[in-house]
Design goal:
Layout lengths: L5 E2 L5 H13 L5 E3 L7 H11 L7 E6 L6 H15 L6 E4 L13 H18 L6 E4 L3 H10 L6 E5 L7 H10 L2 E5 L11 H10 L3 H11 L3 E2 L6 H5 L3 H4 L6 H8 L25
Length: 281
């Protein structure tokens, strides 16, 4: 799996088509990340046609949504995802979320749906429809549930990771279990790009704030999935601009100081300390 890819969350229409083209041709990225719930598979398919690159040179990841969990839904969801993308296999399929849509986070049905969905993915992996299988937003308890009840352990866990929310506990669990971490929201939804510490480090290295945040993620041992629909920003994501330099120990210490208990931007499968919303069992 490439260490850097383009995320496409909340990107649709001509914007996502152009973004994928720029990622593949301008930044020379090889990984495109999408999901059923993003509803942009057909637009990505148009981009793949326009770049005219060999299928095996592009790594395509998608995700089954909480509405596509369970044996029959996962089978149909997988078929629909590949049909929208106009591909006959995916390089990686993930379960997007540990919970099943429409049920309480504490319902035992969540666990049943996870296991059924994973068993479908194992079957399609063995058939060559998926070259790799993994999960997203899973905590250690969810990962162990899969490992204890299925044949193939998750190969990747795609989770939120950035200096404000380094997600160290989950990353340590993944390392212990031999699961690769792929980070999303590395740029902190734009807020971190303007943080004085990030800007100062970027100026020190003559790189952009986005490159500093992505380099931080890479030096944490994560693969990264920056997202943009702007050509100039996508150009910043190339391997040549991210893999040819390093942050110093002092830089990493400054960025570590940004950690904040309230620094999570995205969905949380754990209890919410403010609302008391229960964890996903």
């Amino acid at each position: 799996m490439p260490r850097i890819g383009l995320g496409t969350y909340m990107a649709s229409g001509k914007k996502v088509t152009n973004a994928v083209i720029w990622a593949l041709e301008l930044a020379r990225l090889r990984l495109i990340d999408t999901a059923a719930i993003y509803r942009n598979g057909q637009e990505i398919a148009q981009a793949l046609k326009q770049v005219n690159k060999p299928r095996d040179s592009i790594f395509i990841t998608s995700k089954l949504s909480p509405y596509q969990m369970g044996t029959e839904r996962a089978l149909e969801g997988s078929r629909q995802i590949m049909a929208d993308l106009e591909v006959d296999y995916l390089d990686m399929m993930l379960i997007h979320w540990p919970g099943f849509a429409g049920v309480s986070p504490s319902s035992p049905l969540n666990r049943q749906m996870r296991i059924e969905t994973w068993q479908v993915m194992e079957r399609l992996y063995k058939q060559g429809k998926f070259k790799a299988i993994g999960v997203s937003n899973f905590e250690e308890r969810h990962l162990r549930d899969i490992i204890d009840n299925c044949e193939i352990k998750p190969m990747v866990n795609q989770i939120e990771v950035h200096p404000r929310f380094p997600n160290a506990e989950c990353r340590r669990a993944c390392e212990k279990l031999g699961i690769v971490v792929q980070a999303y929201s590395s740029l902190g939804r734009g807020e971190l790009l303007r943080h004085p510490t990030v800007v100062r480090i970027a100026e020190r290295h003559h790189h952009t704030p986005a490159q500093v945040l992505l380099r931080w993620g890479l030096q944490q041992g994560c693969a990264v999935l920056p997202k943009s629909v702007h050509q100039d920003y996508i150009a910043e994501f190339s391997e040549g601009k991210l893999l040819t330099w390093s942050l110093t120990d002092a830089d990493m210490a400054e960025l570590a100081a940004l950690e904040d208990k309230g620094g999570k931007y995205c969905w949380d499968p754990n209890p919410d300390p403010v609302t008391g919303f229960p964890p996903v069992d």
